[in-house]
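cron nightly-structures :: item 1 of 1
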Amino acid sequence: MLRQRHYFRRERWRVAALEFERRAAGLVGVAGGPHFQHALVRPRHDPRLGQVFVFIRITAQDLRDAVASTGFLVSVEENRSPRVTKQIAGRVEKVGHSISWDLSDHGHRHLGGPVAKCGKGSQDRLPRFATVGGGEDLDRIPRLVAGITGTAAALFYRVDRHGPPLPEGPLIVAANHPNSLVDALLIFRCSERITRPLGRAPLFDRFLLGPVLRALGGIPVYRREDDPEATHRNDRMFRSAVGALHGGGAIQIYPEGRSHSETHLVEFRTGTARIALQAEDGADWGLGLSIVPVGITYSAKELARTEVAVRFGKAFGCADLKDRYREDPVAAVRRLTERIERGIRRQTLNFDRHRDRILVEVAEQLYVRESRWVPWRVRERLGTRFPRLQRFARGLEWIRGAHPEEHRRLIERVERYAALSDELHAGEGGVPPRYRFLPVARYVLVRGTLLALGLPFAIAGSLLWVPVARLPGFVVRRVKPQFEVTATIKLATLLGGTFAAWILWPALGYVAGGLSVAVVAAVLAPVCGFVAMRWVELAREVREDTALFLRLQGRPDLREQFAELRSELTETLRQLEKRWMEERQVSPRKESDGRGT
């Protein structure tokens, strides 16, 4: 297959030009070893040699960037063995894709121009070292890293996923950004596909975090607030993101541009829309790109084992903006950004003030239990409550604008009910109007049995893992990080401590009793830790329910006070809901009458 080879030097990088048989024309592949890789960048026509393929010696990370930038997936072969050890190969399905790969920081020259077509059924025409695979056949390292970190996030929080699965093909996952790096880990956990994250460039230089981001195929974003002199390097970011989409991959972006603790979405930046439109334009508007809005909502993001809802919206595209983009790119970018913001807003809770969210949650819990939609003392998942919370939030905004005096009275009543509930430490389950014998007996029997059966494992797990569980709090108290990254610091510390302990216990078991004891320790230690975590959560619920039950015994005055407040609030909420629905029905009629005249 190999007819002729030429070497020439360009600075300190070796470039080789190789000519293959004409039946291999259009191949884009790579071969290399553990320390360097030869990337087959593009075919070109040489007057003397004919069809020529250009190889460049680059590092493995530069190779990933090159593959993302060109949109091609390639196969990798060990340098000293013909066996293909990694397969991330792919086919180029059309002519005219332009490679715009810039590795000037590494001493490479820019290589551009069209590539030849590699049509269907071309696998038997490839050279020996390259094989063809699907566009989603990523190597195992990103999947392993995403699996580990996503599982850690799912153990740190109680994750509740809602929404359809991610579509196939080129994909942008656009999400809100309330919790720094934890947001990306939750998307890893809740996604069926590996999505390459876009992150702040300084994160890629940090100890441990940088290698993890690079292993996940992360793409650095150079923000002005991080380094004003490095923003010109965002050209590479756009090329890498567009190239990943051209290769059929998926990326995750946070259009707000920063992590924050606001109770509402902040101003969206246009980078997501620019990437999407550039990707479609580069593929002549036939890419079939999908954009999926994602909303991440935390109940208390700084605390472990609290609720988080991850909601995936319906996918939409941007090919309908083709004409607008060609006429006015800025207007098309603005239009798509607004579309993305609407999609994310539908999947998130948005309030003007933090107090509004507390009041909405209290009112929603009271209303659904008084209406007998949810039993008393049952703690629903945040994702299940989310549609009702959204509706209550919209109703609160309506009454604040349309009837401010009634809004003030409603807030006073809800605050009085919330204060009384806090005084009794009622928690999320509310204060039931009465306790019946059979439900109480069933509650005691079921939960008492579970606590008794899990007690031995809980004791063993506590002895093994209490130091690890207390380590994040100790680190946060010493480091005193910003509130935005508190959960990230806790999660990273917990993950490191868990790995260290998981290594320690089998090692001690091996020293004490040999290989069999080490294996038993490696299996039982995480099992006991998980059982202990769930046992402690169940014990806290039982303690809270039991304490409330005992406080209400012999206090008919408290029961009457709660009953009166519940009745007033429930009736007020029902009346307001009725008026709100009537006004919403009248508004469209007025608009239609106005258009008719």
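cron nightly-structures :: done
The two ends are 77 Å apart (CA to CA).
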